[in-house]
Design goal:
Blueprint (H helix, E strand, L loop, with lengths): L5 E5 L4 H12 L3 E6 L2 H12 L5 E5 L5 H15 L4 E4 L5 E3 L6 H29 L3 E5 L12 H22 L4 E7 L2 E2 L7 E3 L3 H7 L6 E2 H13 L4 E4 L1 H12 L1 H17 L3
Parallel strand pairs: 1-2, 1-4, 2-3, 4-6, 5-9, 6-7, 7-11, 8-10
Helix pairs in contact: 1-2, 1-7, 3-4, 4-5, 8-9
């Protein structure tokens, strides 16, 4: 399915994005590893090429609309088409909602939501001309069930799910597929790189123990299976699937149990 296809992955230098780049290349795709970290992207590309597989790196800030437009145009001109566009770039933060400053809200909206919208709509124009293609945006479990103490993150991730599910029927008219991925606990650097506003370092240590977290490579396998089946929403990890259903069918109980526990757990580390 991916053999001789052109696949672009943003946030491809680490975590789930990196694992997706490696797996796509292994399955025969030519992969463009796009990231704000050029050295990290180059390392991923070099590792892929060492296996006689195809990949190139690119510098990209998905929150910069002009840069996104130029990047998509360049890739389309260079390769002639874009078959898969996977948005894995994103940032995370934790803390009580009242503690976040205006600049923090704007940063999260710009990267986690507008960045997804910019890239998706620009590559969509290329795919409309092709009458084919698949846009895959990585949201989070926090986009399908509430995660208190992560309001900016959850706000943007819910936005990504809403954007993708609304966009999907429109795109289908032109033969284009749109999917959104909602991972649960996956072993990636995102939490280590996150700020926990107003909390002690002990909270980060507690959250990053990674008990029962799945490797990024396993997450990539689940995601590609979902892409092959053209799923609208692709939950990753059993926990994400259970929590999603729990909140959908028993929201009041979720609020009194899981959500309350998350709040108390955070407040213990202030």
């Amino acid at each position: 399915m991916f053999k001789r296809k052109i696949a672009v992955v943003t946030g491809g230098a680490s975590g789930i994005g990196k694992a997706l780049c490696e797996l796509l290349a292994e399955q025969g795709a030519t992969v463009i590893v796009a990231d704000l970290n050029p050295n990290g992207a180059d390392k991923v590309v070099n590792a892929i090429k060492s296996k006689k597989q195809k990949a190139e790196s690119a510098l990209l800030n998905i929150a910069d609309y002009d840069a996104v437009c130029a990047f998509v145009k360049q890739i389309a001109q260079e390769y002639g088409r874009i078959d898969y566009f996977i948005n894995s770039a994103g940032i995370a933060i934790g803390g009580e909602t009242w503690r976040f400053e205006k600049e923090q809200w704007l940063r999260f909206i710009n990267v986690n939501l507008l960045g997804i919208i910019y890239t998706s709509t620009e590559v969509y124009k290329i795919m409309m001309r092709q009458k084919s293609g698949h846009i895959i945006n990585i949201s989070s479990g926090s986009g399908i069930f509430p995660t208190p103490m992560r309001a900016p993150y959850s706000t943007t991730k819910y936005g990504v799910v809403g954007f993708c599910t609304a966009f999907r029927p429109e795109a289908a008219v032109y033969g284009i597929k749109v999917s959104v991925v909602c991972p649960g606990p996956v072993q990636t650097p995102i939490l280590q790189n996150s700020e926990f506003v107003g909390a002690k370092e002990s909270l980060k240590q507690q959250l990053t123990k990674k008990n029962n977290w799945i490797p990024a490579e396993k997450a990539a396998e689940i995601i590609l299976k979902g892409i092959k089946k053209n799923k609208a929403i692709i939950p990753v990890t059993t926990i994400a699937s259970i929590m999603w259903r729990f909140y959908r069918y028993l929201p009041a109980i979720y609020d009194r149990t899981i959500a309350k526990k998350l709040v108390r757990g955070y407040l213990e580390h202030l």
